[in-house]
UniProtKB/TrEMBL annotation:
<dbReference type="InterPro" id="IPR036291">
    <property type="entry name" value="NAD(P)-bd_dom_sf"/>
</dbReference>
<dbReference type="InterPro" id="IPR013149">
    <property type="entry name" value="ADH-like_C"/>
</dbReference>
<protein>
    <submittedName>
        <fullName>11202_t:CDS:1</fullName>
    </submittedName>
</protein>
<dbReference type="InterPro" id="IPR011032">
    <property type="entry name" value="GroES-like_sf"/>
</dbReference>
<dbReference type="Pfam" id="PF00107">
    <property type="entry name" value="ADH_zinc_N"/>
</dbReference>
<dbReference type="GO" id="GO:0008270">
    <property type="term" value="F:zinc ion binding"/>
</dbReference>
<dbReference type="GO" id="GO:0005739">
    <property type="term" value="C:mitochondrion"/>
</dbReference>
<dbReference type="GO" id="GO:0016491">
    <property type="term" value="F:oxidoreductase activity"/>
</dbReference>
<dbReference type="InterPro" id="IPR020843">
    <property type="entry name" value="ER"/>
</dbReference>
<dbReference type="InterPro" id="IPR051397">
    <property type="entry name" value="Zn-ADH-like_protein"/>
</dbReference>
<feature type="domain" description="Enoyl reductase (ER)">
    <location>
        <begin position="11"/>
        <end position="258"/>
    </location>
</feature>
<dbReference type="InterPro" id="IPR002364">
    <property type="entry name" value="Quin_OxRdtase/zeta-crystal_CS"/>
</dbReference>
Amino acid sequence: MKAVVISKLLKTIDELEVDLNAPEPELKENQVLVEIKAAALNYFDILQFAGVVIAVHPTVNNKFKPGDKVFGFGHGSFAERVATNIENVLLIPNGMSFEEASGLFITCPTSYTALVVSANLQKDEWCLVHAAAGGVGIAAVQIAKALGAKVIATSGSKDKLAIAKNYGADFGVNYKDKDWQKQVLNITGGHGVDVVYDPVGLVQASLKFIEVWNGLFKLFAEKKLKPVIYKNVYYGLHNVKHGLKAIANRETYGKVVVIPNGGRESKI
């Protein structure tokens, strides 16, 4: 099996290597084995994927079966196959590609939990979304608009602000401007914002609410929320390093995706 394997301390991303003979993942109790069709890249080490179930442990009790198309997370997702617990995977919504689904498990529930469960964002309220062109930020923009809020997006470049506006933000503010806070106050007519969205620290908490996924699947079905994939999809595990460098250099927006074995997948 091919996989990106780190066996020593690396000084740079360029030192990442693909092991052409990596050990196959061992299927344990309460787990499924997934053939990875697409994997999402992140700043931190939670590895997300989308693919097809190829084996299930007898303890799974028919929740999943071979052939099911799923998304989720599991350590070791920069590989051709991964074994992960069933609570870490969900069925891909109809009509969504593997590329689109690969980054769902962290980004969308993080944003939904913050705006709906925690902040109880309401129609016509002002919502300020920081880092609005990133994976969780661009999901937050769409969710806030679906709730009927007025959205102010922040980012560090005109291009990324344009992307945020393209996905629903009403206004854009460059956080590098010294007077960005004054700009926000002027946009709201002196009212200020009702909700400030900052994703730091929300990831783990967001994965614990089943109602979060129920709400998200409803938004997907209503076409009010769509996964956003960075324009450069990286084909082959040898290109993982290039995707990570693009993230580190803040060149990207939405989710960055790698296809382990190349070849663009069709929608389900």
